[in-house]
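Exercise 7 asks you to align residues with tokens for two separate proteins.
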Amino acid sequence: MDKIKHVFEQIKNFSHHQKLSDDIFEQIKDFKYWYLTKEQELLIDKLITDKELKEHYKKNGLCKNCKQPNNTSYSYCQPCNSKRFQQNFKNWTSGNHEVDEFIQKAQLEANHMDQIVEWIEYDKFEDVEYLAKGGFGTTFKAVWKDGCIDNWYYHYNQWKRISKTKVALKCLHNSQDITTDFLKE
């Protein structure tokens, strides 16, 4: 758990760098960052003096939650989403400390939806079909009923998911003794 705390501290430290004031946020919150008029562009250049913040705003827009420029993609605020994941750590476990720590670290460090790793209970899958058996395990295809995370629903304060996602499942032989090195590989 010390590794997870270290990663979260790095995220908190990142979020303490230059920030937009509430006044600046109010002036630019309704701008379409991907299509700024000349006047809006000049105002942005005047209001956001920090080069990195300005670059993030022009590329990714603003986070509706923390009111700061999204630093990694237009619909993903890494500091806010890391906090959401961390608050949910107590609500799930794989039953293996190494696996839990691997997933938690991946969630804290994710910079985009495609990098999110989650622990999914078996009953969240349907239409599970055997594909093949290999050296380390057995492979199946299935449909993940809830589906992967797409983005954060601010109005409902929950993750928006792409339901009925087709996935491949790997049942690992002797997985109770899984190691961090194996997970990294």
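Second protein for Exercise 7:
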Amino acid sequence: FSGPFTDVVTTNLKLRNPSDRKVCFKVKTTAPRRYCVRPNSGIIDPGSSVIVSVMLQPFDYDPNEKSKHKFMVQTTYAPPNITDMEAVWKEAKPDELMDSKLRCVFEMPNENDKLNDIDASKSAQVLNTSKQDGPMPKPHSVSLNDTETRKLVEECKRLQAEIMKLTDENRLLRDEGLRLRKVAHSDKSGSPTALALRDNGSNSLPSLLVVIAAIFIGFFLGKFIL
């Protein structure tokens, strides 16, 4: 078993049956509380093999303490029409049993192995970071922004021209209103009320057009600034 022993350490045993008969096996240990064996018993077909996992539980390792843990793999030929494994081992005669004994050895990795593990871990972290980061994202196309900006500028210029045109028309209408008022004062038969209504109608319409145009250009200028 190779340390560190701060976590479960697993070692595999490969059991092979070279005979032409089925063989029953059982794995025993002198420290059953320190190990977990899966499978700890079973049957191996002729010419087949079985992998047995031996899991050492975490413990405080003392390099000065010699391990006294041992394992024994016990085997016997399986009787025909076997149904009860426990009965097989109880009824087996000593001369029918075969066993192999194994002594446990605990080893701590040396400093070179630790350095190699650290380097490998760092390399894996760098590779994982590179994969997660991925390629640098491409910058957004600038041409689309320029095209949109150009359209907004042209629209603003068009609205400014409309405002100037409406302002000129408003000034002409105001001058016309003044002229008509002068005519009304000079014409004694004219109705002052009718002339006043006509003047108000003439002045209000261009002013309303100017307000609408100003709202539109304010909307487009706000979009352009944002």
